[in-house]
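Consider the following assembly input.
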Amino acid sequence: MMYDIGLTVFNGLAWAMATFLVAAGLTLIFGILHILNFAHGGFFMIGAYVSYTVMLAFGAGLPLWVFMIGAMAAAVVVGLLGWAVDMFVFRRLRDVEDAYSLIATYALLLVCGGAVQLIWGLNYLSVMPPPSLNSVVFIGDVFMPTYTIFVILSGVVAYIGLELLINRTQIGQLIRVVAVDPWMARLLGLNVTRIYLVTVIFSFAMAGVAGALLMPNQSLSPELGGIFLLQAFGVVIVGGMGSIRGAFLAALLLGMIESFGTYLFPQYPGIFFLLALAVILLVKPSGIMGKEQTA
Amino acid sequence: MASTEPLLKVSGLNAYYGGSHIIQDAALRVETGESVALLGRNGAGKSTLMKSLLDAGPRVTGEIMFDGAALAGVATDARTRRGLVLVPEDRRIYPNITVAENIALGRHAARPGAKVDSDEIYDLFPLLKPLLQRAGYQLSGGQQQLVAVARGLMGAPRLLLLDEPVEGLAPVVVDEIAHDIGRIRQTGDLSLLIAEQNLGFARRVTDRVVLIDSGRIVFDGGWDAFDADPQLKERYLAV
């Protein structure tokens, strides 16, 4: 019994932190620019493919540092794509209705899928975790793949890093100020356009890193973008749109619900996430940290 | 050589919100060191005119010369760094940061190399000192206004635009703000353009009157000339 609970908690944590890694950039862009970026999953996928290409170039049996170089490359490439997307797409969406943002970012998602097909083809590709992350540890009786532990730690590090960045740094304060009232920020001499650009590049780079870190054990295909995106959207909505802390707490909550649900009713995997999503939104439509736009 | 050009010179200014033509062919000038009242009823176009000067809302055509240079094509944040700073009517204090942080934000509007010292600015507003560590949402309306003006001054403005600074404030607070503005004017050659409906307050803090009605400038002159024509008050300010 203890064994089962331990394993179920571990699986819930893995689900939570993997999803948070994807959700963080999504909620950041929503919180600051008020754009719901449907294409986030597409750029997550491009990050995974970029990292795949880097690892392919180095050959098989890769050490951890090559894996990290792959993640860096994904951050840089997807961050640069973020720069282009802000310049050519997001900037045009600032003064139009939300429906246009949805259509434009959905179109971007399709473009991402098409680009991946053109560059990497339709075949399913896969990558093993680096050997140093491809073992298991036992805590008590609980069997924990080191790669999964790595993903959980990555999620926690990403959360703490984001909290510090937003709440403890100069640029973080400016980002919060712009999120609350961009009009006044301009009147105070802040270059709001540039602060938006930095936010978008950073969020995209995070999507790229998430793709690279979560790629092992996934089948890479042009549909990858949609799979994590659905979970990430759930976490962003339950957490309260735009709240980093809310997304983190929601990821933990939904991860545990999903994990325990699947443990108790193994014939219905994936359904408890959706049930919980529906129930939480009925009870608190603004999400756990609703109202608080960025924190 | 002192320049004879006014600090701000506006001509043929038109401003639109969507299809509505709000400001119609306005001309306006403010000299260095001068304080000008912009009077008019609610909806006369005072706020729209002020926002037009910073390209912060309406679509604008016409010429705005500031310190001898045309502002067309200059972004809002860059205009603030040329010395044109607006304190908007609704004050817009950031609620979740402290008063001191709010005031410090104003420094982004300062020209590169401009000397601004927050302590000097706190000295101008003795009432602010005990509030510095308070969050923005914990302030009364009068306190918000003081913070907004102090924040504007942190941008080392050459022309400070105050949009209805005493609207909704108790008479004793209005009096305090009039004193503060008097003190600010003694510290240098700051120019002021103050949109107002409160005639008594405007009279105390300005040298000249510009009257706006339905988006048109209908009078521009000294307080003596304004007082000499009681019809002006009757036609353009009486509710």
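Residues 22-225 of chain A form one domain. Ask yourself how this observation constrains the way the partners meet.
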